[in-house]
Amino acid sequence: MTPEFTNLEELRNLWQSCRDGHAAPLRSTIEARGLGQAQDHAFIVDCKTVDQARFRRAGGLVRDLMGMDVRGMKADAIFDPAFRNDCAAVLRAVVAGPATAELRLVSPGGPSVAELMARMILLPLRGSQGTIEWVLGALVTDGPIGRPPRRFGIVAQDLVAISGAIPAVPRQGIYDLPEVSEPPRQVGFAEPPAAFEGRKHDQSIRRRGHLRLIVSRD
């Protein structure tokens, strides 16, 4: 396990330890505990209005990828425009499920930058009223960032529904987990691989995974 991947697991373990039997921990509990060595990779997204989700905190890696402070920016800013609807769907599923998500990402290479692979986790957080309205995330990259901004496409994505816990207070206006059809399979980044043939207006991002729902009994 690489040190970068360890940062994802550290954050996931912190989130798990703060749940206290609930579907998701309170944001205040997470912040009181601190994010440890994962802080540079972590971010918090305000999802009170999911379709307008915005960064409220972001570590140094996200700033370096974008070449600027992202606080207040929409959370989909780090995604290629062709994948921003997919980003919104994943955030909506994390909040509505509730669920956890893990994404594998790619930023295409070009004349002056190499292709950059990344992995992201998204974990739901409760607000002070008990509703899930925040998302704790972390991002790690494999290789040098190169020249910013770097924006990503989604190669593969897994959702894990949280069950067997004290439910969060229901929210209005949040959709159920999306139903996603299984795409044709071919050699790709994920194991088992899934295909992405590219958007007609952007062939630079070649691969895309499917959304896989797993029910957790934790």
Under the CATH scheme, the architecture is 2-Layer Sandwich
Strand order of the largest sheet: 2-1-5-4-3-6-7
Shape: globular
* CATH class categorisation: Alpha Beta
List the helices and strands and how they pair.
Elements: H1 3-17, H2 27-33, E1 42-46, E2 54-58, H3 60-66, H4 84-96, E3 99-107, E4 116-126, E5 132-142, E6 153-162, E7 211-216
Parallel strand pairs: 6-7
Antiparallel strand pairs: 1-2, 1-5, 3-4, 3-6, 4-5
Pfam families: PAS_5 (PF07310)
Protein name: PAS domain-containing protein
InterPro entries: DUF1457
How is this structure best described in words?
It comes from Albidovulum inexpectatum. Pfam families: PAS_5 (PF07310). This is PAS domain-containing protein. The structure is a single chain. The chain has 218 residues and is an alpha+beta fold. Mean pLDDT is 79; it is low at 171-217. It is built from four helices and seven strands; from the N terminus they run H-H-E-E-H-H-E-E-E-E-E. 39% of the residues are buried. Strands 2-1-5-4-3-6-7 form a seven-stranded mixed beta sheet, sandwiched between helices. The protein has helices at 3-17, 27-33, 60-66, 84-96; strands at residues 42-46, 54-58, 99-107, 116-126, 132-142, 153-162, 211-216. The protein is 19% helix and 26% strand. The chain has a single domain, classed as 2-Layer Sandwich (Beta-Lactamase), CATH 3.30.450.20.
